[in-house]
């Protein structure tokens, strides 16, 4: 297996010792000092997943999730980030046909339920491996589906359960909207304040600003497989290049580290999803995981888009302060006397007492 060197003369790299359907390439960015516990060091080791989901298979999805968590923990990772709808895989068929009842029913049956034995397995895995997990998944709430994320701390606490505020275009044939409680998307963890958004939520200026104002140290940008732009009339903003530009811009605007985590799709996945003749996710690839520093620079090298791996980096907290010396759109570089954001962050129940 070829090894890809990260952007550091001090870099080291590893081959995975654990098998997660295939060997994983580890990309590790080190500074000059050796890694220390965050209680005595400003360095935090994080991992962004680039891997193929176990399409439409909840049990296999949970197994692979736990294997990746264990693999990351074996490399002293303190936080691992998973892509959008990692469980049970992004419903790629929606960009090929608006209705597919067979796959839709299978998708509901294999989506993740809060409080289920499947979620409990992931929670226990986080505890046993002493690692924080930012999980992207399709949430099944009594048969209604939502594009969801949550933070599972290294003590097993589920924090910031949230749903995508507005599914994008064809996603609305499968998923519902959130209510205001999903705006609480940044929480304290053992590695600092961690937040998350999904996919094209990174286009929404008001949502982004509300998230910035919650003062993230680390932001997880969760994406499905994203392929390079074709050069044709298809939207550049939906391409690998466009989606990466959104995550990089988020890093610059928020002065936070951004973990850009993506799925990928293989020939097997294309067959399962029935997308060979569709407009998106119709060829193998789509992996584009990366980690961005608070000034927007990419601090990891890329894996081939068809290759599974963990992108691992050591983050130095002072990089956040260095950028905020220059710009803080929620602080000294703002004019709340001129411009401000109004928010309704209350949950809205379907049945309420007057």
From TrEMBL:
It catalyses: a nitrile + 2 H2O = a carboxylate + NH4(+). PROSITE patterns: CN_HYDROLASE, NITRIL_CHT_2, PROKAR_LIPOPROTEIN. Pfam families: CN_hydrolase. Its EC number is 3.5.5.1. The keyword Ribosomal protein does not apply. One of its GO terms (molecular function) is hydro-lyase activity. It comes from the Eukaryota. SUPFAM superfamilies: Carbon-nitrogen hydrolase. Keywords: Hydrolase. Residues 44-317 form the CN hydrolase domain. Belongs to the carbon-nitrogen hydrolase superfamily. Nitrilase family. This is nitrilase. It comes from Aspergillus leporis.
């Amino acid at each position: 297996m070829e090894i890809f060197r990260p952007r550091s003369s001090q870099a080291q790299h590893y081959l995975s010792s654990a098998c997660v359907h295939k060997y994983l390439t580890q990309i590790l960015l080190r500074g000059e000092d050796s890694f220390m516990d965050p209680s005595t060091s400003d360095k935090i080791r994080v991992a962004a997943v680039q891997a193929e989901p176990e399409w439409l298979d909840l049990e296999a999805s949970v197994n692979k999730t736990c294997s990746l968590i264990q693999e990351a923990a074996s490399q002293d990772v303190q936080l691992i980030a998973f892509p959008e709808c990692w469980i049970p895989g992004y419903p790629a068929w929606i960009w090929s046909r608006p209705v597919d009842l067979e796959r839709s029913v299978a998708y509901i049956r294999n989506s993740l339920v809060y409080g289920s034995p499947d979620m409990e397995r992931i929670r226990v895995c986080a505890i046993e491996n002493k690692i924080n997990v930012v999980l992207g998944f399709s949430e099944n709430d009594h048969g209604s589906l939502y594009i969801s994320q949550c933070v599972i701390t290294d003590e097993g606490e589920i924090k910031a359960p949230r749903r995508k505020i507005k599914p994008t275009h064809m996603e609305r044939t499968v998923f519902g909207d959130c209510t205001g409680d999903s705006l609480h998307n940044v929480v304290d963890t053992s590695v600092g304040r961690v937040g998350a958004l999904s996919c094209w939520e990174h286009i929404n200026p008001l949502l982004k600003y509300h998230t910035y104002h919650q003062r993230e140290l680390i932001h997880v940008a969760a994406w499905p497989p994203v392929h390079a732009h074709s050069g044709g009339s298809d939207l550049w903003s939906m391409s690998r290049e466009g989606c990466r530009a959104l995550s990089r811009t988020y890093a610059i605007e928020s002065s936070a580290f951004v973990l850009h985590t993506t799925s990928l799709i293989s020939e097997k996945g294309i067959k399962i999803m029935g997308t060979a003749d569709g407009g998106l996710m119709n060829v193998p690839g789509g992996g584009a995981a990366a980690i961005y520093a608070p000034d927007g620079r990419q601090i990891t090298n890329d894996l081939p888009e068809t290759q599974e791996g963990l992108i691992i980096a050591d983050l130095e907290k002072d990089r956040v302060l260095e950028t905020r010396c220059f710009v803080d759109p929620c602080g000294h570089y703002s004019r709340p006397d001129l411009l401000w954001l109004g928010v309704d962050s209350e949950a809205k129940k379907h049945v309420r007492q007057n």
